[in-house]
Amino acid sequence: MIKIITVGKIKEKYLTDAINEYLKRLSKYTKINLIEVPDENFDITKTLETEKKSILKYVSEKDYIITMEIEGKELSSIEFAKKIDEIQINNSNICFIIGGSYGLSDEIKKMSNFKLSFSKMTFPHGLFRGILLEQIYRACKINNHEMYHKWGIMEIERVKNMKVALTHAGKFHADDVFGAAFLKIINQDIKIIRSNIVLDDFDGLVFDIGMGRFDHHMADNEVRGNGIPYAAFGKLWREFAPSLYGNYVYESIDRKLIQDLDLADNTGSYNALAIAIDVFNPEDVKNSDNEFFEAMEFAKKILIKIIDKQKRCEKDLVKVKKYYEEAEDKRIVVLDEPLFYKDYLPFTEAIYVVYPSNRGGFAAQGVTINPDTNELKKDFPKEWVKNLPPYLRFCHTSRFLVASNSFEEIMHAVKEALKWLEMIGMKS
Q1: Has residue 427 got a pLDDT over 50?
Q2: Are residues 158 and 287 in the same domain?
Q3: Beta carbons of 296 and 184 less than 8 angstroms apart
Q4: Helix or strand run (H / E) with residue 111
Q5: Is the pLDDT of residue 318 over 80?
Q6: CA 281, CA 277: separation in Å to the nearest integer?
Q7: Rg (Cα) of the chain, in Å, rounded?
Q8: Same domain, 305 and 344
Q9: E strands, 318-416, where?
Q10: Which H helix or E strand runs over 203?
């Protein structure tokens, strides 16, 4: 459920009509509880104190509180959608709080789990409620992998019908190679040409050159919220991937693949895939078109495989969530089939996951602390490496994986591992 606590009532019909329209649209995705508390007309101190008391009547200990503050963090619509999704995995309720004319009391601000700003501009409070509801609606559509803006559709159709795209000549890098590969996935008939000159009348898409929206060599180049700058591939992916594949595939591939490639291109940092692309460059980089297109085909195969895998992951997440919700002990999640679980279980109470082994019998793995690391919440007992218990047939030396011949044996193993963790105070 999403709760929105606001100060003051709305009198303007056009605003109430807009709010009611988005409440109706949102009913398809989630329950929205819109709560209006009275606005007061005392001095600042008394007004904030009185409004605080009114707000706190509707705040629960289980609420994840998001306060709307001009000093808060600004998010893109996709980042906002991701934030909503992450909160809903771990919290039953999200509570947005919109203050009155004087803002919010210091006590309310201290209670906030996340301070959010939509802009440095000031909006009328009634209008802002409508804006917030529209963004929540947009987030729901993104998280349900629905098309959320016509602009994305129009741009993709334009690229699908485009005859030519241009990038720079000479030495190539993973950035322009993968950018070209992505465009060829969107439109297999598009011709990629390489030149260090962009003519004013060029009628096509330009990337990694020309100082346009798909270049990154400007002094004021865009940077992600985590500090990683965009390169051309990242900008192309951001523009087209959400509409093509949905937010999950867009975000997970950007996080797992593209950010490191963008960082390598912008800073020269080490990246194994960037190095693999670089070895395609010939000794004479001035005449490198043949090698570029060879590298592009290589990158295209990789990107297609990664996209397909993340699509499978997305489907698996629905099943994994169901297995987790049905688990008697949330620390142990039993899967009836091998599934991609690493994008979901790290955000839950799960410590171990059990599944049928492709080598026969059953296996159990420790769950990582987040999807992008190999660091486990808790590994298996170190004694098992040297002295394998009779109910196990294998324990990896890194203690992230164990295997048994039967389901009964693997369940006994993970329960013993939990006892061991409890005995040592959850320290491995």
Answers
A1: no
A2: yes
A3: yes
A4: helix 106-111
A5: yes
A6: 8
A7: 26
A8: no
A9: 332-334, 352-356, 362-366, 394-395, 401-404
A10: none
320 in a structural domain: no
**392 close to 415: Cβ distance less than 8 angstroms:** no
What residues make up the domain containing 410? 327-423
Task: Determine what percent of the chain is predicted with pLDDT higher than 70.
Answer: 96
C-alpha separations of 426 from 349, 362, 398, 410 in Å: 13, 25, 18, 20
128 & 223 share domain: no
Q: What is the pLDDT of residue 92?
A: 65
Residue 224 structure tokens: 């992600």
pLDDT digits (tens, 9 = 90+) for 253-264: 999 999 999 999
* DSSP SS3 for 263: helix
- pLDDT 10s digits, 330-370: 999 999 999 999 999 999 999 999 999 999 999 999 999 99
Cβ neighbors of 242 (< 8 A, separation 6 or more) are: 78, 142, 148, 152, 250
Q: How confident is the model at residue 153 (pLDDT cuts 50, 70, 90)?
A: low
Type of residue numbered 121: M
